[in-house]
Amino acid sequence: MEEQQYILKNCKSFEPKHIFECGQCFRWNEQSDGSYTGVFGNNVMNVKKEGDNIIFKGICNGNIKEVCEDYFDLKTSYEKIKEKLSNIDEYLANSINYGKGIRILNQDLWETIISFEISANNNIPRIKGIIDRICKKYGNEITWNNETYYTFPTIQQLSKASIEDLRNIGLGFRDKRIYDTTQIFLTEKMTLEELSSEKDTEKLREKLIQLPGVGPKVADCILLFSLKRYEVFPIDVWVRRVMNELYIHKEDEEKVSKKELQKLAKEKYENLAGLAQQYLFYWKREA
DNA sequence: ATCCAGGGCGGGT
DNA sequence: ACCCGCCCTGGA
Length: 287
Hints:
The protein starts with a strand and ends with a helix. It has 15 helices and seven strands. The strands form two sheets. It has a five-stranded antiparallel sheet. A two-stranded antiparallel ribbon has the order 6-7. It is an alpha+beta fold. The protein has helices spanning 16-20, 64-71, 78-86, 90-98, 109-118, 124-138, 155-158, 163-169, 175-186, 192-196, 201-209, 216-225, 237-248, 258-269, 273-286; strands at 4-8, 28-30, 36-40, 43-50, 53-59, 141-144, 147-150. Helices cover 49% and strands 13% of the residues. The longest helix is centred in the middle third of the chain and has 15 residues, at 124-138. The protein has three domains: 3-75, TATA-Binding Protein, CATH 3.30.310.260; 77-101 and 230-287, Endonuclease Iii, domain 2; 109-225, Hypothetical protein, domain 2 (Endonuclease III, domain 1, Orthogonal Bundle), CATH 1.10.340.30. The protein binds a DNA duplex through helix 6, helix 12 and helix 13.
């Protein structure tokens, strides 16, 4: 395939570092020039910011502009979102200023389900390593600029992995969860189509939680990062920490219940809680 | 060495 | 409904 290029001009809410390091994705890596290279779908792409321009370069199946508009959520006005959230309180305004270039990617559902099952009680470097090895072993090879990249395996491709294979890749106790989830989709006990066509967010969450390895937190990540539910508020240790510091002030943050946090997030951030979570998370982790 | 990292699960009250 | 211990692994 031919390399394509697309230049996005004057985009105020687009910082590669913010987008790729706010915790939503695992397959983008920083290059020596500060740009990021990653694989999504059957595309390999490099994203570089030069001044106010964003330069997308890579091999796409389809028109690169359309591919980028979809994946990078370019039709959504983050200016409006940020303005609305910034007015809620000073803390949020500060965190938004810190991560002003964040955008929520439109990620593949299957990849997101598996990736966040892997994230359970795990750290980011190890999650990335595991996913890399899975792609290398079960995905398709793509060559670009004399480098080899691998797509995320399809359901059929990943179904070739036994529990033992997965254990050897380093999945640990998550091996059976990934295997069982793959079998569920392979045998169509559940389908990606029925998930992406479900309109009711609560019903959707219930369906996701039926999957082995998907609990409340992982379900919320899938809802936010792939199914475009901006109102859900995934609570991990960092979010619990930052919410306690800003609003609750308990000595022991462990004692802050998830229920309490969900209620607070809904009251304060309403239908943009997921976006608020991203700005707060990124700020707390990086600053 | 012990602990922890972007939780989930199963078995208790 | 909450609560708790356990679960692989590897880096600090």
